[in-house]
């Protein structure tokens, strides 16, 4: 077990700001858990499988970022769990009641802790008190060892180590109403909009410090999970991750490239269910004592700065009937 200590109390400067600090866990189902094991093991995550449940973890970090269960039918987002500091829970609960946001029964795959709310897109959202698992500082790049003169800087293919993501950065969801979804996270849970592009896409960060976005929504004809994004330590790791997945037989994806909103370097690998897992490096960070100025960007300036052509099915939501 890692010795990493996760923060459990809010900064004094944010005493009067009440909002969740972390996307604590995303939960979805797939038709075959063995397939999920093979995919995420190749991706470089640390897996824990018990009684039909597959937990997604990362090297050196104590947190479970996601959980997958087996169920018939297509892959399906089941619920999200957010965590807040104990000092914020009552204020969030009172705000939820003031806004008349409907509460719901705990999801059958979850527990009865905290608040259970019904998202406007029709899936449950849980809010619990818990330690801050989202980044407390901007991710530190891996600094390569100095290369002696006359020595090549790149390792031979046979010596390249497996890429292991360090933590979850964010998830991007599909939504039939991006504005309504953003309003839910902003008004009820206290997240703040970082950037957006019309009603096509929106990115939200946490008020106690997080990456440029810990959750985002893209317009679709229904809800669903588009991708989970995982932090790595260098652009070389992004490229190595791409090669790692190609070698494992996962040949569909997008990248390597660089985003505009968030600024991170990326490679997306398509999973067996039509969604994606992203290797991400050097995403923008919003400190807990800083108020980011959000902006609405034209579509041509909101997606990526450079990279290969976007695959035709990249924004297809496979969780809803075609």
From TrEMBL:
Boundaries of every VOC domain copy: 22-130, 167-282
Entries under PROSITE patterns matching the protein: VOC
Identify this protein by name. Answer: VOC family protein
């Amino acid at each position: 077990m890692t010795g990493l200590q996760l923060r459990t109390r809010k900064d004094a400067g944010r005493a009067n700001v009440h909002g969740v600090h972390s996307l604590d866990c995303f939960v979805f189902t797939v038709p075959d858990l063995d397939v999920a094991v093979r995919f995420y093991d190749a991706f470089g995550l640390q897996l824990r499988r018990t009684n039909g449940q597959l937990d997604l973890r990362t090297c050196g970090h104590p947190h479970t970022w996601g959980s997958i269960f087996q169920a018939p039918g297509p892959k399906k987002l089941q619920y999200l769990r957010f965590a807040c500091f104990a000092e914020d829970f009552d204020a969030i609960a009172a705000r939820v009641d003031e806004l008349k946001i409907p509460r719901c029964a705990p999801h059958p795959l979850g527990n009865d802790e905290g608040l259970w709310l019904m998202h406007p897109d029709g899936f449950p959202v849980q809010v619990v008190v818990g330690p801050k698992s989202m980044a407390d500082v901007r991710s530190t790049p891996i600094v390569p060892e100095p290369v002696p003169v006359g020595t090549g800087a790149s390792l031979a293919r046979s010596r390249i180590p497996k890429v292991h993501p360090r933590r979850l950065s964010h998830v991007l969801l599909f939504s039939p109403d991006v504005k309504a979804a953003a309003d839910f996270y902003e008004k009820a849970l206290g997240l703040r909009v970082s950037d957006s592009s019309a009603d096509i896409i929106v990115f939200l960060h946490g008020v106690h410090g997080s990456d440029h976005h810990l959750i985002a929504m893209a317009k679709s004809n229904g809800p669903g999970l588009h991708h989970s994004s995982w932090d790595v330590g260098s652009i070389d790791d992004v490229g190595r991750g791409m090669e790692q997945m190609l070698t494992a037989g996962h040949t569909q994806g997008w990248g390597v490239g660089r985003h505009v909103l968030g600024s991170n370097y990326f490679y997306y690998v398509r999973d067996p269910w039509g969604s994606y897992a992203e290797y991400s490096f050097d995403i923008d960070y919003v400190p807990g004592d800083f108020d980011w100025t959000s902006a609405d960007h034209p579509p041509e300036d909101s997606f990526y700065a450079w990279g290969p052509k976007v695959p035709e099915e990249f924004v297809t939501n496979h969780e809803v009937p075609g």
